[in-house]
């Protein structure tokens, strides 16, 4: 029963069109406009995050893909208008462990990802007429693990919105740090990017998210990272991919790049 997984009393995403549903949508839209994100803390009922982690841990410990690379904030080899030594192109390191959707069939994470009232609620908050789950068997939902000394470093997202569900917080570190609207579609603000990378941007903010929180984030022009994890307990987070058109698949090259395998 989905009601045993999600707190639908607090977050009535299953009552589409009701005043309570509309209020939740309106509050989420307002938070997105003000902060570039909204958080539904306690979206999972007590004990559900721990259950989800227990389902995933055997795969995470033995068959996750280790993704380690040096990159700039753009994930691009170069920016044509910038010299290679420009401080906005400073290299940073990202290390993570990825479990793909095809490795966790029947899991709590996939049950939540495919829950249609959630998909429709997210579409409403994002101002989309419709969203669809991804068809790609690997990429549709991923669980990312970050262990001691590992981090997701500064970057901008390729997609307009990112939807995540924190399953396990680390003992220390692993905080979500972001700088809202660091650039715009019209202004790349390279000097501002350089300032952020040097740790000199006073508008950068840190958010400490609790396990069981659903986060929707507009990351295309807001720089963000996950700070280095400390302690024995890894940070574990589910990443949900939805698209405005049905049937979206990654290319073989993208799958190999992200997951080390094509199928």
How would you describe this structure to a colleague?
By secondary structure, the chain is an alpha+beta fold. The chain is built from six helices and 15 strands. The chain has a seven-stranded antiparallel β-sheet with strand order 1-11-7-14-5-3-2. It is globular, with a radius of gyration of 18 Å.
The succession of helices and strands, N to C, reads HEHEEHHEEEEEEHEEEEEEH
Q: The biggest beta sheet, please?
A: 7 strands, antiparallel
Mean pLDDT: 96
Shape: globular
Cα gyration radius (Å): 18 Å
What's the β-strand tally? Answer: 15
Regions with little confidence, pLDDT below 50 for 5+ residues? none
In what order do the strands lie side by side in the largest sheet?
Answer: 1-11-7-14-5-3-2
- The amount of helix comes to 25-40%
**Distance between the first and last residues' Cα:** 31 Å
* Strand content range: 15-25%
Explain the layout of strands and helices.
Blueprint: H1 19-35, E1 37-40, H2 48-63, E2 65-71, E3 92-99, H3 108-113, H4 116-126, E4 132-133, E5 141-146, E6 152-155, E7 162-168, E8 172-173, E9 176-179, H5 190-197, E10 205-207, E11 214-217, E12 223-226, E13 229-230, E14 235-240, E15 242-243, H6 252-259
Antiparallel strand pairs: 1-11, 2-3, 3-5, 4-15, 5-14, 6-12, 7-11, 7-14, 8-13, 9-10, 9-12
Keyword list:
263 residues, alpha+beta, 25% helix, 15 strands, 4-stranded antiparallel sheet, 7-stranded antiparallel sheet, 6 helices
Give a brief description.
With 263 residues, the chain is α+β, with helices and mostly antiparallel strands. Helices cover 25% and strands 25% of the residues.
């Amino acid at each position: 029963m989905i009601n045993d997984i999600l707190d639908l009393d607090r977050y009535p995403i299953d009552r589409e069109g009701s005043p309570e549903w509309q209020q939740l949508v309106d509050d989420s839209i307002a938070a997105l406009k003000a902060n570039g994100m909204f958080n539904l803390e306690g979206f999972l009922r007590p004990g559900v995050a721990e259950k989800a982690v227990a389902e995933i841990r055997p795969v995470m410990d033995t068959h996750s893909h280790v993704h380690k690379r040096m990159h700039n904030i753009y994930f691009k080899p170069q920016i044509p208008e910038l010299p290679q030594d420009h401080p906005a192109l400073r290299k940073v390191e990202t290390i993570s462990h990825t479990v793909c959707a095809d490795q966790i069939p029947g899991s709590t994470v996939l049950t939540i990802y495919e829950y249609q009232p959630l998909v429709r609620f997210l579409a409403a908050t994002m101002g989309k007429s419709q969203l669809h789950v991804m068809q790609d068997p690997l990429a549709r939902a991923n669980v990312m693990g970050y262990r001691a000394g590992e981090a997701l470093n500064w970057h901008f997202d390729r997609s307009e919105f990112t939807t995540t569900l924190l399953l396990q917080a680390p003992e220390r570190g692993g905080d979500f740090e972001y700088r809202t609207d660091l650039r715009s579609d019209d202004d790349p603000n390279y000097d501002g990017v350089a300032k952020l990378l040097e740790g000199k941007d006073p508008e950068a903010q840190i958010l400490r998210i609790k396990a069981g929180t659903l986060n929707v984030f507009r990351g295309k022009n807001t720089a963000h990272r996950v700070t280095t994890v400390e302690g024995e307990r890894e940070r574990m987070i589910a990443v949900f991919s939805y698209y405005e058109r049905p049937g979206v698949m990654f290319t073989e090259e993208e799958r190999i790049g992200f997951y080390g395998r094509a199928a």
